[in-house]
Fold this protein.
Amino acid sequence: MYFHGELTDEGGGVYSGVVAMIDEGAPDAGYDVYGKNGATAWFGDDSGGGPIWTSVTIASHDAWPTWTPDTPDWYQYSLNLYVDGGVLRWAVRNHPGATEDHPWYDEAYWGAGGKPPMGVPMSGTMDWDRMYALETDTGAYLPGTGTPEIPGGAAGYGGGAGAWDMDWSWGSEVVPLEMPGFEVQITDLGGGEYDISLTPWANTAASGTMEFEGELSAKGPALTGTIPMTAGSYYVAGGDGEHISTGGGFDVLAQEGGVAYVQGYYGTGWWNDNYPPGDNDTFVIGPRHDAYPSQQGGGPWGSWYDPDCADYGMFELELTADHWYLRYAPTGESPMSGTMDWDTMYAAETDLGTQDGGHDGSAAHGGGGGAWDWDCGWGVEVVPLELPGFYLNIEEVAKGNYHVTMTPSSPPEVPLNAPTCNTSGQVEVTIDMPDMAKQVAGGQFFLTYDNTVLTYAGHSAGDYPFDTVVYWDHDPGAGTIAISVGDPFGGYTNQATRMATLTFDVASEVCSEADLVQFDTAHEPPSMLSEPGGIPIYPTLTDLYAISTDQTAPSLTAPAMNVAYLCLDDVPFNDWLLLNGGADAYDACGVVWSNDYDPANFVVYCCTAGYVDVTFRATDPCGLYVETTATATFSTIAPYIDNDGAYSAVSVNAEAGGCTALVSWDAAVVVNGCCDTTYVDYEIDLYNDWAVDATISDPWYTFPSGTHRVRVLAWDDCGEEDYVDFTVTVSDKNELVMDIGLQPTVDTPLSRCITFELSGPDTDTWSEVITFTGGYADDVMVEVPCGDYDCLLVSDGLHTLKRKADDFTIVGTQYVATVTDPDYLLGGNLNGVVYNDYIDILDFGVYVGEYGKDYGTGNTDCSTPYPHADISGNGTVGTEDFSFIQINFLSQNEGCSKGLSPTKTPRADAGMGPVTRISVAELVRLGMADLVVADLNHDGWLDENDITAFLNGARP
């Protein structure tokens, strides 16, 4: 409902004033939808004619008698927001006599203040915090707005909360409402103007669910015992502001708007309400009470307690192996009972009016399956239930203690069924009843059909007990059918059963059209099922789904075409299949293509090379089809090496310890050709002479020094192959990685020719220029002649003694060694490349002969000639170089057979010992005349006296 007008802001979110209902653009705007369609309204006699009430079923009109169809009457209503004794209230007023041109609030027409307000069809309290308008009208009126013709009539005749009750000068009306309350939205438009919308609150609670908790015992697949109902979230219309009663209850299982039968007071009367002079023994079930009388003190006898009470504690559930009972705890009565299916956890409600404390034959008054029936000490109540059965969910919360929920099942569905496709020229439509919780004795159905597509051809009854057509009517011009079926002898069933069959001739072809046959939901009386005794069951009616009445097969407009491909699984072949072999067909209802391709039909030449015949079928929705056949042939294709780009020439050094190297490469990745299985080999051609020396299956091989060829070869069972060649070159060098140190105090950086003497099973010598930084060269890698070595001697032949690498070993594919502090190379051996193993007087002679010489650089390479006396690496020969000779005098080379620390003790296997004194004549005789210059004291001898003379300043 929408309203617009001026309100007064009272502060604190409270507004007051009267505003008009507005159209909001709806052509049938008004107040109609809040009267529950299908509910019963009571109307008093016209013009105050008396208290006798008559009932009308609400359908497409307001609570105005005789106004059918309804009129757009939104202009007859206004909303009043006000404060009443500190209580915030609301009321929707009715203004009969108002017109759309001159509504009640039109002051220009009605005069200042507008037409006085009249009846209050709805009223209640306002919760401004929650913006919720709770509907609590009980027949009262605003002061001065009129008096109901029958005071309290709304409460006495199905009224109260959720009902309209007003006097329009000709009688009183009581109309149950579908919605219990409204959410309110107020939009401030400025200048005191407001838009207001009242939207019915939609109940989202699982309102029909009952909850129980207590101890149960296992008995076979069943659980037995009696447990009480627990407080839960049970729906109570109107509610408590949150709209959900948290106290529990049983209310919602009685169908709101249904008819209840109530016996006389304290069991003394007949089935009547004992309200003279009425003869009415029925009540319409409203939204806020249970199905028991006012034992709690609410209203006169014969009415139900209203408002409801939190009475969940009065009910308990008893489960047995095959039955269930809902007991009314204070008296032990069984308001509901039925059968239990422990496999499906379904509790069918099959109560026939039996109870523990007594029985009244109430089946004639709406009892039986789906009704409560018990005696509370003053009478018997029979209340039809909305739902036929319940699904159980059982959860063990502690050993032996269970939480049980009973949730109402959905209403039964009665569908119309027919073959989806009809190619014979006739359509048979069946009316089918599903499995029911209640017994069913018959049914009446009112239908319409599309007489432009279907022509009525006949009908027949269903299966027992619906094997007799009780009534039949057909209007071919209107396309309407009425049929009633049952058993004249009183048979009934609750099993899924066909109730009737309707046969139609096909007047025209249609493609998947829905609603060709429908239930006539506007018909009065409506389609329904009936229990034994005539109690109605109103199921959900489902119209006929989309069907086709196609009798024409598709026509082929283009045949399938033969194709030739490489291999069966080639992508183009799959595309050919998807494109139906190039075929095309037409049908007014469309076609779906399929084919009979099966690998088992493939005629094999080799692997997947061969041919296959494929039949393509175009089928319309009714299964009519046309076919076309074509052949696909497949020739062979070689597998190929997909990662051939991974293969390129490989060059490596020989591995330390010999002159071979283990070389690996990527395994071949082969894409199949026509065969599912492919094979891979690696052919080894040593020395690349185009002769295969070995065929291996693993992608690695140990090669000798030289250049070789490897062929990666892939092939399949058809003999098709692919290959790729690459070369592997293994050098005749091993890698030697060293850390080398020179005796401290040398310049940096400094390049020197270092000689490596390798010995063991193999022997060899190799020289390499090494650059030292700070006297050290770390992680130096040199390539030495390949071989099997176990000893390494290192020296700078122009300047140092030889050192043995005591930690010489193989790590991975490399030799590694260390000659560093404190075992660094000792400087001072200036004649190591031409003479002996010692730092002695001969080295002093070389030094004196070179003294003062400027080489321009301290660096040497392996072609630098002997002698070179710049030990320190500063580029010149000076006194700083003499200190190396002085400090290391008489030290000797280390050897592989026996190492010697830099001491002055001669090595036993060193051959000629150190020379400490030699004559000038001997020097000349030995070809070392260049050392004569070192005889600084000119005594004909080169000895320690000359060293002393040098220290005293003598120079050559």
Q: What stands out?
A: The two ends are 128 Å apart (CA to CA). The first strand starts at residue 2 and ends at 6. The helical segments are 107-110, 153-156, 571-578, 841-850, 879-887, 920-925, 944-951.
